[in-house]
Amino acid sequence: PNTNKPLHLGHIRNNLLGYSVAQILKANGNKVIKVNLVNDRGIHICKSMLAWKLYGGGETPASSRMKGDHLVGKYYVEFAKHYKAQIKELVAAGQSEEEAKKNAPIMRQAQEWLRRWEAKDPEIYSLWETMNGWVYEGFDVTYKALGVDFDKVYYESQTYLLGKSLVEEGLARGIFFRKEDGSVWIDLTADGLDQKLLLRGDGTSVYMTQDLGTAFRRFEENRLDEMIYVVGNEQNYHFQVLKLILKKLGYDEWSDHIYHLSYGMVELPEGKMKSREGTVVDADDLIADMVSTAREMSDELGKLDGCTAQEADAIASMVGLGALKYFILKVDPKKTMLFDPRESIDFNGNTGPFIQYTHARIRSILRKAEEAGIDFRTRDEAAALLPEEIELIKALTEYPATVQAAAANFAPSIVGAYAYELAKSFNGYYHDHSILKEECTATRDMRLRLAEQVARTIRLAMALLGIDVPERM
User: The whole model's pTM is what?
Assistant: First the structure.
């Protein structure tokens, strides 16, 4: 994430995908370090800071009662508004649009602020620390609500100097070249790519500069076998270039072990999101809406009957987040997806709530068995199996191979599809065959044990997607 705006729906896909892949890799016996890589420096951050300084009137999260990341994001949009107005004025005065974009006073000032930040200007640096602090507090609230966490955080402000030193090294060795304006580039045309900027003419770094430094530090500090970047497909070219530059610098021993887990964009029925125009789907708003919609739909369908207010709140939160996570993770990561909140909370069909409800339904059957004093776990008489029961048992035995396939392909969607098919098969079976009212004791006990294993496997599979399942509904 950039520290100039709150997290949005695209970040949600990023975080859910990364978290789930980490859980799946751990389940396959790997040691996984979950890292958050924060872009906390650069021109975007300077835009928010400058707009706050010019138009903020000293506003703070405390004075505005606004989450810190939302407050900073508000000034990012404010910058864009004034920038557009200035471009319009300059074009009206006779400049071309390209010239106007470069000459707009507010943009020139933002670029000056970036230079001052890199020079550690006390005034700029202090404001940067304050506003970033507001953003981190806001991010932490969102991550907690989303149920994701990190083992390590890397800040680009701490790796861009290392990146610059790698660029200087490459320049000295003739791998890179300097243009007349002082900017540093690499020519990759012989590799079928183009020329890539590594340092601007004023000496400030770009994304590639800091990514070189970050990749170097991550391998150096952690001695990794593999490094998986979970980043949207708009950056496919960027990662192709990153690996190639590292290879040319002589780090091919580990640069070949960088893997870009590229995912498609999340779109809405009304189209793409743009944060500078303030048209993004805010992560906090979406999470709150999902939970409130889950509460409303669960109430309507009688799923919360007999629950205390506290239980109903917990279930609504579990179902709302389960719906969001499952809807996003059931799609192949590479595909662009269309997100429809109401469709995701449907209790029928291929949704998180359908699988959650199946788990709750089985747990209810098992509770009733225990209340009736049925000791189905220790009695193990032979019972004849129906074809549907044999199919369910086969499905249960396929769980380990499913988790292995999901790890090999970095694809939570494989686990999601498995959990849905298992839940669907059990529901069909339960619709046609009695469990508690079965007259043959051996058959009843076998069916209870089978149901218990289905619930357990659903719970394990959903946990790999970061989804909790309720005990009752």
Answer: 0.90
